[in-house]
Design a protein that fits this description.
Length: 326
């Protein structure tokens, strides 16, 4: 029986500190928003909830620390889903308390809530990805490409949090109730699902991770974030005269639409320029580490990524021939 990999204790401690500190600050918001006997009841409730969450976190965080040097990110996805699920429930109650108490116009506290979420959520995602611990990714260029792709995930998280923050930050004219509910739960679903998609792309490829195959997240984010949030901000600005709409993030969405569209066009051209019968191998994720170097067919001008994939194709064909002979 293969022994389990050792736990990375600094990684476990750092992720636990980020999670518990953000949860404690959200609890402080919930307690502060209530007064009298109800305040004591809320304090007891959140304390019991934090103890239960800490018990679950004690096991999940250790499992995440054990897989940080491997190619798997399964427990990281579980931890992310658990964290966002609980955190966003608390954010919802904080937002509802601000909405019920319209006399509380403490803009500094509301801005601090936005800042808290904008720091803790992206930082935890970066910790769970653990790019610096990917020792199986040998090429520095490939590691930088992965880091650039994950940078877009962090920017998308900030984009979603900006949309959500419009609900509790001070506003001159309130949005309709159904619009607020739709915006909050749409952002809730995006925060739950999209980072897990990015982590699963890394996990499914194993030790032979290749950035050019991480295409699922860009496609989903193109539709769910860069297009939909552009309509959300435009609708709030035109229909509800919302002057808090971020023009910078609207420009980011437009720029991302252009860049990702160009990337998809270039990717399709690259597939078309590959050798015949080679497109099926683009979907394969496992590549033997000791592959022999093959030469590309004459008359094909292909890039380094296509060359690497063609070498994989040749090696798999050779392996298949040997298996038949045996």
């Amino acid at each position: 029986m293969v022994p389990p990999p050792p736990t990375n204790k600094p990684h476990v401690c750092l992720s636990t500190i980020i999670i518990m500190s953000s949860m404690a600050l959200m609890d402080a918001y919930l307690v502060e928003q209530n007064h009298g006997p109800r305040k004591i009841g809320i304090c007891i409730m959140v304390t019991v909830g934090e103890l239960c969450f800490l018990i679950v976190l004690r096991y999940v965080a250790v499992w995440v620390g054990a897989e940080v040097r491997t190619a798997k990110r399964g427990y990281a996805m579980i931890l992310w889903f658990l964290y966002i699920f609980v955190l966003e429930i608390k954010v919802y109650f904080v937002y509802q308390n601000y909405k019920a108490d319209r006399k509380s116009l403490d803009a500094l506290a509301r801005k601090a809530l936005t800042l808290l979420l904008s720091i803790c959520i992206p930082v935890l995602f970066v910790i769970l990805v653990a790019i610096d611990h990917m020792d199986y990714v040998k090429a520095f260029k490939k590691k930088e490409e992965i880091r650039n792709r994950l940078f877009w995930v962090v920017v998308d998280l900030l984009d979603v949090l900006d949309i959500q923050a419009n609900l509790w930050e001070p506003q001159k004219k309130g949005l309709p109730l159904w619009v607020e509910g739709l915006m909050f739960f749409y952002c809730y679903i995006l925060l739950l699902v999209l980072p897990c998609v990015s982590l699963s792309e890394i996990s499914m490829q194993g030790i032979n991770i290749s950035p050019h195959k991480m295409m699922l997240y860009p496609i989903l984010s193109l539709v769910t974030i860069n297009i939909v949030t552009l309509f959300i901000r435009g609708g709030n600005m035109l229909l509800y005269k919302d002057n808090r709409v971020s023009g910078i993030l609207m420009a980011k969405n437009i720029l991302a639409l252009v860049l990702k569209t160009c990337s998809f066009v270039q990717y399709r051209k690259q597939l078309q320029s590959a050798p015949p019968g080679f497109g099926v191998e683009l979907q394969k994720n496992s590549v033997p580490s000791g592959r022999s170097v093959q030469t590309a067919p004459q008359g094909h001008n292909i890039s380094d990524e296509t060359m690497w994939m063609y070498e994989t194709y040749c090696h798999l064909n050779e392996k298949y021939k040997w298996s038949i002979m045996e």
